[in-house]
């Protein structure tokens, strides 16, 4: 199972007047963890483009269980759970000090050939080779 983890201290510019992180910033936190995961298999966005594929996000779900607060240090874990026909990545945001679950989320991405804009119905070898599951 491919996974990655990052830590983030919620910055002042991400919070509202109640010192709670605005919900829209969560997508950025997930993206940072997703990039760490993709780096771990050497298939981040530059490698995707070089392989001839774009991987747009086509679905994102976020379940806000507890708010993130100013200066709170959180751990964002990203785990690849599907790769055969699409990339599905599950996320967990936890308070780093207590381990308390704050947020769950997932994203779904699909491979699109850059040359013609067509979506693939199976993940290309450019991804599966890096995962060691070709074949």
Q: Could you characterize the architecture of this molecule?
A:
This protein is α+β, with helices and mostly antiparallel strands and 135 residues long. The chain has a single domain (3-131), classed as Thiol Ester Dehydrase, Chain A (Roll). It is built from three helices and seven strands; from the N terminus they run E-H-H-E-E-E-E-E-E-H. The chain has helices at 26-40, 45-51, 125-131, and strands spanning 3-9, 53-54, 57-64, 73-82, 87-95, 101-109, 112-113. The strands form two sheets. A five-stranded antiparallel sheet has the order 1-4-5-6-3, covered by helices on one side. Strands 2-7 form a two-stranded antiparallel ribbon. The longest helix is centred in the first third of the chain and has 15 residues, at 26-40. The two termini are 18 Å apart.
Give me some keywords for this one.
135 residues, alpha+beta, Thiol Ester Dehydrase, Chain A, 3 helices
N-C termini distance: 18 Å
The major pleated sheet works out as: 5 strands, antiparallel
Radius of gyration: 16 Å
Shape-level CATH architecture? Roll
Structural class: alpha+beta
Any idea what the CATH superfamily is called? Hotdog Thioesterase
Helix tally equals 3
Q: Strand sequence of the main sheet, in spatial order?
A: 1-4-5-6-3
Overall outline: elongated
CATH class: Alpha Beta
User: Might you state the CATH topology name?
Assistant: Thiol Ester Dehydrase, Chain A
What would the average pLDDT be, to the nearest integer?
Answer: 96
Strand-residue fraction?
A: 25-35%
Quaternary structure type = single chain
Please report the total strand number as a whole number: 7
Number of domains: 1
Determine the fraction of residues in helical runs and give it as a percent range: 10-25%
